UniProtKB/TrEMBL annotation:
<dbReference type="InterPro" id="IPR000600">
    <property type="entry name" value="ROK"/>
</dbReference>
<comment type="similarity">
    <text>Belongs to the ROK (NagC/XylR) family.</text>
</comment>
<dbReference type="Pfam" id="PF00480">
    <property type="entry name" value="ROK"/>
</dbReference>
<dbReference type="InterPro" id="IPR043129">
    <property type="entry name" value="ATPase_NBD"/>
</dbReference>
<protein>
    <submittedName>
        <fullName>ROK family protein</fullName>
    </submittedName>
</protein>
Length: 300
């Protein structure tokens, strides 16, 4: 059975896993990031790989290759982390550094959302002739599109769902979706509306689920904004499947029902096939690691 290492790199943590060719997560390790400078950050990536191997019965020689998901802009062909807002890696030659470090020639890097999308696409066993969309709602909001088995990249910036303008009823103006309804925005909205300085995004959802009626307007505002953007996806792509990931929605699966009900109000009957094919990730925080590992075997 072929195996690969999948790495999901973020500004706060780095996850590494050993992935089988069938997508099974055989082992997983996690370390804290160190974004203080580029070399310290790379050292933490190396540590994550070493840790996942130490905790398993495998060695680096058993690995077919390494796949890496990196936030921000990535040059896949040259193996360069071009720019990351929360990492110190401007034009960092990640592929060549990993080859030098571990001696494996097969290194695949891509944007982290694309890697997660690939993991979800494989997990849902989507058909190669389907249009599949992965949407992540967390600290940021983004999406990735797989059409006929390949990523739709446009000129290189496709999938930036968080940049779509939506009309915020609270602010009474157009705002970019990410600024209006990503995790940090939900926290700010709740603090402002309820005049509570120590209120977190997690608190908002927990108290809403606990029946606190004063949180209803906040949930309505946030989900209204999401659905405006999601309807744009429905109209432009008419996807066969949409899978949601990211901590905001995977930790609060009740949100899917709200999204589906609100989408019905927008969609005409010919679009409503999508409503029964919207789901929440079952691999959750592991989708980036699994997707990165699986991409090694795909060679794309």
């Amino acid at each position: 059975m072929n195996k690969a290492i999948g790495i999901d790199i973020g500004g706060t943590k780095i996850a590494a896993g050993i992935i089988s060719e069938t997508g099974e997560l055989l082992n997983r390790a996690e370390t804290k990031s160190d974004p203080s400078n580029r070399e310290k950050m790379f050292t933490r990536v190396v540590k994550a790989v070493e840790q996942v191997l130490e905790d398993s019965s495998f060695t680096i020689a058993d690995m077919y290759g390494i796949g890496v998901g990196v936030p921000g802009k990535v040059d896949r062909e040259q193996g360069i982390a071009v720019f990351q807002n929360n990492l110190p890696w401007t034009k960092f030659p990640l592929t060549s550094r990993l080859r030098d470090q571990f001696g494996l020639q097969r290194i695949t890097i891509d944007n982290d959302v694309y890697m997660a999308a690939f993991g979800e696409w494989k997990e849902t066993q989507a058909e190669s002739d389907e249009t599949f969309v992965y949407v992540t709602i967390s600290t940021g909001i983004s999406c990735s599109i797989i059409q006929n088995g390949s990523f739709f990249r446009g000129a290189g910036f496709a999938g930036e769902l968080g940049l779509i303008p939506v009309f915020s009823k609270t602010a009474k103006k157009l705002e970019r979706l990410e600024q209006a309804s990503a995790g940090p925005a939900i926290e700010k909205l709740a603090q402002k509306e309820l005049q509570m300085a120590e209120l977190s995004t997690k608190d908002v959802f927990e108290r809403y689920k606990g029946g606190a009626r004063e949180y209803q307007n906040i949930i309505n505002e946030v989900t209204d904004n999401w659905v405006q953007a999601l309807y744009s996806i429905s109209c432009l792509l008419d996807p066969h499947k949409v899978v949601f990931g990211g901590s905001v929605i995977t930790n609060n699966p009740f949100l899917l029902e709200i999204i589906v009900e609100k989408m019905k109000l927008y969609q005409i009957p010919e679009q409503q096939h999508l409503l029964s094919h919207m789901s929440i990730s079952t691999i959750k925080e592991n989708n980036g690691v699994v997707g990165a590992g699986l991409r090694v075997f795909e060679g794309n």
